[in-house]
């Protein structure tokens, strides 16, 4: 599959998944949703609710029950991003960590599976 894919397509795919998506997701989930929820509920619950939504939106509807391990790992990762955002009071660290996470996963999927 990879050998038949033009390099420009691979580059666009990698940039989209590894760089653009984490920035958009962190602005949306941490910067907007988590902050909006914090105005109504505690910081901890806003992180938990944001992390639940983040995790659900990353699941495959076709995978069914096999999504559970993925859900819990994404939920844990999202909680980490949420607490990091609160501690740093900035999106830079969560965005950087999210970019690293997506990049490592993308490289492992593309080249080691």
From TrEMBL:
GO terms for biological process: CAAX-box protein maturation. Keywords: Membrane, Transmembrane, Transmembrane helix. The keyword Metal-binding does not apply. Residues 8-103 form the CAAX prenyl protease 2/Lysostaphin resistance protein A-like domain. Coiled coil: none annotated. It comes from the Bacteria. One of its GO terms (molecular function) is endopeptidase activity. The chain crosses the membrane at residues 12-29, 41-61, 67-85, 92-112. This is CAAX prenyl protease 2/Lysostaphin resistance protein A-like domain-containing protein.
